[in-house]
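Hi both,

Apologies for the delay on this - the queue was longer than expected. I finally got the magnesium ion-bound model through. Below you'll find the protein sequence and the ligand SMILES exactly as submitted, and right after that the structure tokens for the full complex including the ligand.
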Amino acid sequence: MSKNNILLSINKLSVSIDDKPILRDLSLQVAAGEVHAIMGPNGSGKSTLAQVLAGREGYEVSGEVSYLGEDLLDLSPEERAWRGLFLAFQYPVEIPGVNNVYLLKAALNAQRKYRGEAPLDAFEFLTVIQEKMKLMQIDESFLNRSVNAGFSGCEKKRNEILQMVVLEPRLAVLDETDSGLDIDAMKIVANGVNTMRDPERAIVLVTHYQRLLDYIKPDKVHVLADGQIVRSGGPELALKLEEKGYDWLRQEAVSA
Amino acid sequence: MSKQNQELEKFVGGQYKHGFVTDIQSDTIPPGLDESVVRLVSKKKKEPEFMLDWRLQAFAHWQTMETPVWAHVHYPPIDFQEISYFSAPKTPDDAPRSLDEVDPKLLETYDKLGIPLHERARLAGVAVDAVFDSVSVATTFKAKLAESGVIFCPFSEAVREHPALLEQYLGSVVPYADNFYACLNSTVFTDGSFVFIPKGVRCPMELSTYFRINEAKTGQFERTLIIAEEGSHVSYLEGCTAPMRDENQLHAAVVELIALDDARIKYATVQNWYPGDAEGRGGIYNFVTKRGDCRGDNSHISWTQVETGSAITWKYPSCILRGDHSVGEFYSVAVTNNLQQADTGTKMIHIGKNTKSTIISKGISAGRASTAYRGLVKVLTGATGARNFTQCDSLLMGDRCAAHTFPYIEVKEPDAQIEHEATTSKIGEDELFYCRQRGIEEEDAVNMIVNGFCKEVFKELPMEFAVEAQNLLAVSLEGAVG
Ligand SMILES: Nc1ncnc2c1ncn2[C@@H]1O[C@H](COP(=O)(O)OP(=O)(O)OP(=O)(O)O)[C@@H](O)[C@H]1O
Ligand SMILES: [Mg+2]
């Protein structure tokens, strides 16, 4: 991948909450067309990274993040979304009384507005979404249910991916979208993600399981531990982690 | 206070949009209340003898009553001698007969409120009986309604022209001795609406009244009476908004609904009175007695209310389920912000056999406001087969507001089925962030979440008013964002 094609560039990002450091001097470059996997033990800061990228407030943040040539940290969450940044949440929230389809249409039209495109009317939107639902093997009754309310864990995750394929982001960050899925559901989710692969797009997958990477082949794998990327490599790194666990890295760090 | 809550405070710190005062000259009688004032009010309205007698009886009773004290609302004592009990806009020749005769200033006022009267009336096929302060000044579509035998007119006109109906029904649901404020209203009520739907008639259009309080220090004492004869149907909407004011203004309305056999009344209120400034100064005191009597078998009364205004609201639209198989419903959204206090709820009194009631209450509190829901479900001896379903949900915005729920249940028949569900949730950072991450702007996200919360109630409103209600909520909860 050419260096000119960098979509996301994180430079010495440090994040803390109430003076408790969570990420320390983290640097990462993601080029268009790439898929990166981020792995790491519980509590190492993976979700924090994802949330900070999406613009969640309440963190003390220092360092630089540039996205499509802009200072990402300067933008509000919605401004980031309009520029094609998408986060699939580790824990998608329930919003009672708000239709899934209503939220999704509002979201898509907000982004279209930013791009200077006319909003889709109900009919046009339905055409778009029906095709995507087929891809995600989601039943149409889904649309008229309230956002995530009463959804099973698996349904919530699939709903996140449905939103992603409808919104067609430039940079998608998927925070443990595979957790809690059975093997069939995981294949469907992986299929959704794979259809998104495109030379213009980048995908960052946060996962605990090498299994997902059998279906979505990453270009790079990073290990996040104690708020830092302690190791980066190709897909083989994930296999090694599967075999040896994180302790192997820790020991290596000690002996080094 | 956390960052999130500061954000929420910004939202809910929205300015009241309808705060302005028109300078129409008023014919106002000096403040104070004694028998001569009661006589004067009656005389100014050219009322028949029976009406004056009724007012005087009410006044005599009112003097024996004590101002009520309620647990969950707090306000300084009201000096009833400080209030002027009559105020009418001065127009050249008594009341105008058509819109053309209406003071243009007044029409302008409606315009500012976003109520283009004739437009709305023409487009939506709505008959509007506009109440400006105490005297009704415009009535439309009367002719069309008259064709089907429907009477929809200002209360004072009904007193003069339909005295027999008044004598039969007035006070038959809310007797003057019912409570302190109902009694005060019975003494000095000035105007309101009267609706009569004859046997078998389905009212050909939505009936709607816009209320507006304009005169400083003028207590407002509206009186509404709706009678639906056997097999008739009517849907009525009441909406109001008030100009910004410096002093607290008292409003004590009485609404009586009567549904005979197989009749159906839907009564919806969208209420947007000035709630006072951020310190709670200058808002409206709203003490209302609303009661529906399902007098006939298979009768059906439903109350829907969207309350965003007032400094203090005390209000319990209730249903007396007297007829067998009668149905009572209560759908409510109450929003309180800043220092607003709302104590609302409903009473469902099951008397007939196989009666059914439904209560859906949604309370939204923001700022330092508090909302209390108080619901009474009473099943009397002989009311076999009674059923009630109650659902009370509270949504808190920020961490300085409060919500209280007080369900009271009294059951005298063992086969009654009573269900009660209650939830309290916080509009959180998580939901907002989720929506914003999808590209929805903060303010829109708040509206979306709040409207979602209120959905079950909004769907009970007529379509065009549902939209209005959503806008109202947006205005009540909006702030200087961005
Ligand atoms: N809002 C918060 N307040 C205090 N501590 C927090 C907060 N959010 C995260 N943390 C802490 O930061 C650390 C990193 O959390 P994070 O959720 O980013 O980990 P993670 O790598 O995603 O873990 P998991 O694999 O379990 O999802 C944890 O110690 C967590 O307790
Ligand atoms: Mg996580």
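Main takeaway for now: Chain A touches chain B through 31 residues (CB under 8 Å).

I'll put the files on the shared drive as well.

H.
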